[in-house]
Each structure stands twice: as C-alpha cells, then as structure tokens.
Predict the structure.
Amino acid sequence: MAITVTGLDFTTQQNTIAAQVENSRWHSQLNWQITAFDRDCHVVELLAMTNSPTVALYVYTPDAPTTAGNPESKERTTNMAKQWGVGDYRYELAENWPQVDINGVAADVVGDSAGRIYTVVRDPRADGTFIDITPGTGHMLVFDRDGALLETREEGNFSSPHGLWINSDDEIFHADCGHHTVTKYSQSGETLMTLGTKGEPGAPGEPFNMCTRATQSRNGDIWISDGYGQNRVHRFTSNGEHILSFGSGDPVFVQGWRGEEITGTPGTGPGAFNLPHHVMVDDDDNVYVMDRENNRCQIFDIEGNYQREWSDVRGANDAVIDSSGVMHCVSAAGLELRTLDGGLVGRWGEKGEGPGHFTASPHGVFIDEDESLYVAEVGGNNRLQKFVRV
C-alpha cells in the first residue's frame, strides 16, 4: 500500500498532514500525526489512525528533506505497514505464516514453551464442504515458531475438533465435541488421559454432550464447558475424578442452528447458560464462563457459586489472559479486550478477504511468550493467522 504525503510544515510542527491513500479500500479520511523527528527536524515516523475499525499504520520517511525554517511543500510516496489492534495493543501480521496451506477448518490454537504451535483441524467432507460441530474427521498440526510444519498427528482420528488448551507442563487438552470426549496429550503426542466415552453422550446433566473446551485451575483441577448438547460446566480432579457440575437452561442452540423448531427455554438468569463455549480459571480461582448466546461472561467461585457477570461480551468463543492481566476474547466480530474487573479496553478486527482480515469467525486465540497473538477461524478453509505485537 502506498500513500502520497504533501504539505509538511515543520516551522509550526503542524501535526495534521494532507494525505491521499493509493488504495480503494481506504476511502475514509485518515488522521495523521507526526510521532518522531530526527535532530534536524526531518520526519522519521508518522502515525495514521482510522476510526472504524481503530487501526494504527506507521509510515517512515527517512529521506524527507524538509527542515525547520524551510516550509517548502514536498510531495513524496512511501510504503505503509498496516497495523491492527486497539489502545496499546498493536500488531502487524506475520506474512506467510503458516508456511503451508491448512486443508480444512482450524478450530483452535495453542503454543508450548519451546515455541511450537498446535492447531486442530476439521477435515473437509467428500463434497468439499467444511465440517462444523457435527461428526466427521480431523487431525492436529504442529508448527515451529516461523510457521514451518513439523508434524501431523491423530490423522483422521478426531470427529469434530473444537477446543485446545495447554498448561505450564506443556500438556495439551483437546475437547472433541463430535466424540464427546476430552483428551490430554503430552508435548510429544502421547495420550495421557481421556475423559468421556468416545461417540457416546453422557446422561442429561452429566459429562459430556458435545463439550467445547477443557482448561485447568492452578491446583490442577480440570474444568470443562459442555455447551452444545447441554448447558453445563464440569469440574474434575487432575486425575479425572468428577467433582461437580453446574449450569441450567434447555439446550436450544443446536435446534436453532439446524433450523428446527425451538422446543425448550434458553437459560438467561444467573448460573443459567445458553451455550457455555469456554471456561477458564484465573490465579485467584475466579471461574469465567463465556455464555456465548447470552453475550455475557459469568464469573463463579470454584464451588460453582455465581458471583457476578459482565454484560455485552459479544458472542465470545475463546479467551486468554495475558501477562498484564488483560483478557483477550475472540468472537465472530473479532477481538474484545477486558480487564479482569470487566472493564472494556477495546475491540478490534476487520471483516474481509485480505491478509489480517477475519474472513470467517474467530474461534480460538493464543498469546505466546513474545506477546504474538494467534487467531484460528471456523467457517472457512485455511484460516489461521499470527499477529506480532509491536
């Protein structure tokens, strides 16, 4: 992308610059600010902002000849690296990451302490359409930090890969909503534990009926959101012993998704759910449940007692808490950032077909030790992107 900048006036250090973007997508006016001069008052950095969505774009002009006391108008064309994000959270897209096409739907993404990135993929059907939450086949891909494919695991052994999570010991938890199971793997791919019976949903209210994600609390207990076939959250010991389950509300989501008549009543009150799609526990033992169809996050204690909720959490599919204590939620609309008291930091994401856009529905998110952010999208083929924080 190129821009043409005119009228640099450094006698007044004017910070509004006339600019025309040589790209038809950017038809709205940009707000430009000079963010850095060199010692001779040459511009070395410009910051461009759009208002909808909020995107930062940096432009470097190290050869700009205009100096203080010489306000002659110059016209210059330079390249512009697009950034994504909101507030202090700014990212550039990692180009050519991953380095191979993903043949299928990347449902979720996590990374280990060695920099390897894992995604679970729903294979295309024989007719070329994409597997959704209904049974099919799938596999796991392992990449290095640069996006080179290292390994394919469990090829054809998954049914409907859904949620991934990884702990500090690099043990990977996978919730397969087609198999009604949660499986724990070692970093090398060895199966360490399986909860649930493959292909058999549990009794009403019991684990599992199309489970969506499994995570752990700091004491090692396993927490599982069981959201498509029923509106429940389950807690197990680290050894797989069932401790408790909670949540209510008729499982109406799948009926509506299939276009069937709605025969039940969705849960809307405190402690009731309408598709608990993700569960996570912070270091203070607050249990966060992404109540997707109710557009909220409910917070419980570790005994399953309702504490409070955040409203207007827009259709969250997955979430991760960064090192600063900010929660990054992904939904069909993009990303939503909140402090752990529920305060909204901001939202970002742009629909489209180009690099950095969200073509389908963001469904999984992970942040690595370098604060790079990975987003997996369902509803389309080959949708896994890496955003590098700047």
